[in-house]
Design brief:
- The C terminus is likely disordered.
- The longest helix is centred in the N-terminal third of the chain and has 17 residues.
- The chain is an alpha/beta fold and 524 residues long.
- Helix 5 packs parallel to helix 7, helix 13 crosses helix 14 and helix 14 crosses helix 15.
- The protein folds into three domains: 275 residues, Alpha-Beta Barrel (TIM Barrel); 71 residues, no CATH class; 57 residues, Double Stranded RNA Binding Domain (2-Layer Sandwich).
- It contains 18 helices and 16 strands.
Length: 524
């Protein structure tokens, strides 16, 4: 069977990562985005554990999730209570979801030590809970916790827990690699063996503690699992869950499995970034398939080959997952890196011009600049090669002073002199520091002519000392990141003087914002 069903648990297991805390509104918008992408199952949380999840399910009932099924998560009944008395099971019913996922023990060790129950009591808890939910019309997913450890320790009992759930009517039996310590060949072998004894469809839920969350999931699919559980970007407890943004394209592009449509798969990179933004975590640039660097090429030999045929150093077409190929420019680059970047900007660059830009970059990197994280600075170099390029402003000079005044405390003032449209402007500004004052003065000089710059805002400012052994005379690198017009860009400056380094990066960023077709639209 080529169809694989996607079960996302970002909203429950993913939030168990120690630096993630989602509001109800956060969970609702992520659930909607997951449904639009094409997930078959979306686990919303544990309604019996906290008021937030209870509110989420009440509000999620009004969401249009299309074909996606919302699942509420809980556990099997307590050993001393009937299903009708168990508050956890009642909360699952109160969530009113079409799917209920219940976790139960499949390891005899956990039954004895954690539940302090007999093996037969645990089987009864599983049977009763599944049958109860089926009697209420729910689709039931049984998560067999610690299944692989339990199978290795006591194969017969682990299989007995699956039979108990299956006989009670469970729709899915999910084999959980809860501690994340198994290796791919172990997982595949055990799943194949389970398939010989159990007819109910199997799923898999893996953690990444040994770095094998993705490979264990793929191995489980090879072994016969047709439902995969995981989280967007691998978020989860400890080191995380199996990463769906890697698993899905591997299944679909490498293993011939059908998970989502080709059109939906092209939304994968966007989905990954969206969830990272909502959970307020930096997106991992080097993530497979969807990272900013996943199809970035730095070595000159690589880029020279890619200019002839992209598949020489790429395992897939990045467009298949909504990503794009990039050429990273540095002292390791060749002319091809420069020419590839120029092509992306619509600039026809001959070999001599490309070599001149490359030589400039190598010399600047020797002086402390770095262009890998400052692509806007490279793009400006290329734009300035165009015969029709006119700089939107010309820097003449600046003056910055910082003093401590008894009446006002620390104060910085800056004056800048720039030429704009043939007119020299001499403008001053105050700031809470010299760079802030310099930025204010430059923007004051330009915004009257280019009002669109008012929508451009600084979002990051980084300073790095390059040769700390030289103390206060050390070379300093400054990276400045601005946002505007729906774009984000970074420029770089370097000098032994932090003000001068900042000035270079600041001026380049504002010039970049005025260059068509990138940045904001010119006005005035």
């Amino acid at each position: 069977m080529n169809q694989v069903y996607l079960y996302d648990t970002t909203l429950r297991d993913g939030t168990q990562r120690e630096d993630i805390s989602l509001s109800v509104d956060d969970k609702l918008v992520i659930a909607k985005r997951l449904a639009d992408f094409g997930f078959h199952y979306i686990e919303g949380g544990w309604p019996g554990s906290n008021p937030k999840d209870a509110e989420f399910f009440a509000r999620a009932a009004k969401l249009d999730l299309g074909a996606a099924k919302l699942a509420a998560f809980g556990r099997t009944r307590q050993k001393t209570k009937t299903c009708e008395q168990d508050s956890n099971l009642l909360a699952l019913l109160e969530a009113k979801t079409p799917v209920v996922t219940m976790v139960g023990k499949s390891s005899d060790y956990h039954v004895k030590v954690v539940l302090t129950a007999t093996l037969e009591e645990n089987l009864a808890m599983i049977r009763d809970s599944v049958a109860y939910m089926k009697s209420k019309g729910r689709e039931v997913v049984f998560d067999a916790e610690h299944f692989f450890d339990g199978f290795i320790a006591n194969r017969d009992y682990a299989l007995a827990t699956l039979r108990a759930a299956a006989d009670a009517g469970a729709d899915w039996l999910v084999l959980c690699e809860t501690n994340g310590g198994k290796l791919p060949w172990e997982v595949e072998e055990i799943v194949r063996e389970v398939g010989k004894h159990i007819a109910t469809p199997l799923g898999v839920h893996c953690h990444n503690d040994s770095g094998c969350g993705v490979s264990n999931t793929l191995s489980a699919v090879r072994g016969g699992c047709t439902q995969i559980q995981g989280t967007i970007n691998g978020y989860g407890e400890r080191v995380g869950n199996a990463n769906l943004t890697t698993i899905i394209p591997n299944l679909q592009l490498k293993m011939g499995k059908q998970a989502v449509s080709a059109e939906q798969l092209r939304e994968l990179t966007s989905l990954s970034h969206y969830v990272a933004e909502v959970v307020n975590l930096k997106h991992y640039n080097h993530a497979p398939y969807i990272g900013h660097s996943a199809f970035a090429h730095k070595g000159g030999i690589h880029v020279a080959a890619i200019l002839k045929s992209p598949d020489t150093y790429q395992h897939i077409d990045p467009a298949l997952v909504g990503n794009e190929m990039r050429s990273v420019v540095s002292e390791l680059s060749g002319r091809g890196n420069i020419q590839l970047n120029a092509q992306a900007l619509g600039i026809d660059l001959n070999n001599d011009d490309a070599q001149r830009v490359l030589n400039d970059i190598k010399q600047l990197e020797h002086e402390g600049f770095t262009f890998e994280a400052a692509e806007a600075s490279v793009e400006l170099m290329l734009h300035r090669l165009r015969s029709d390029y006119v700089r939107p402003f010309e820097l003449i000079d600046y003056f910055v002073v910082t003093e401590r005044r008894q009446s006002r405390g620390l104060l910085s003032e800056a004056t800048v002199k720039v030429k704009v449209n043939g007119e020299v402007k001499f403008v001053a500004a105050e700031g809470n520091g010299p760079v802030n004052a310099l930025s204010g003065a430059l923007r004051n000089a330009l915004e009257g002519v280019y009002p669109a710059l008012k929508s451009v805002r600084l979002i990051d400012y980084k300073v790095r000392i390059l040769d700390s052994a030289n103390g206060t005379s050390a070379q300093i690198r400054v990276l400045i990141t601005f946002q505007g017009g729906g774009k984000v860009w970074t420029t770089v400056g370097a000098s032994a003087n932090i003000i001068e380094a900042s000035w270079h990066a600041l001026a380049d960023s504002l010039e970049y914002a005025l260059v068509e077709p990138v940045g904001v639209t010119q006005a005035g």
